[in-house]
Amino acid sequence: MPVTARHIQLSRMLDTSIEDDEIARRALAARPGDFASALFLEAADSDDVTSAESARGYLDDRLAHFADLLEPATTDAVRLAFGVRVAAWD
Prior knowledge:
By secondary structure, this protein is mainly alpha-helical. 71% of the residues lie in helices and 0% in strands. It has five helices and no strands. Helix 3 (32-45) crosses helix 4. It is globular and about 40 Å long.
């Protein structure tokens, strides 16, 4: 399987080499907090994110983009860690 744009994105976000979906799944499961932090920084840099509510919408969109690489428990951990960061905006 060739390296995809999502693999490249995850490599950048997690500062590790992601070469296929299985490596991506393992990296995300092992580091949900790091993934949440990277998503938070993306949201903070986005001109479209102007509130905690829009940050949560941004998170939903990004989780949907990576959904097939995320186990339910990983998604829950990412949401929790992201929520802690966003709570400072409320």
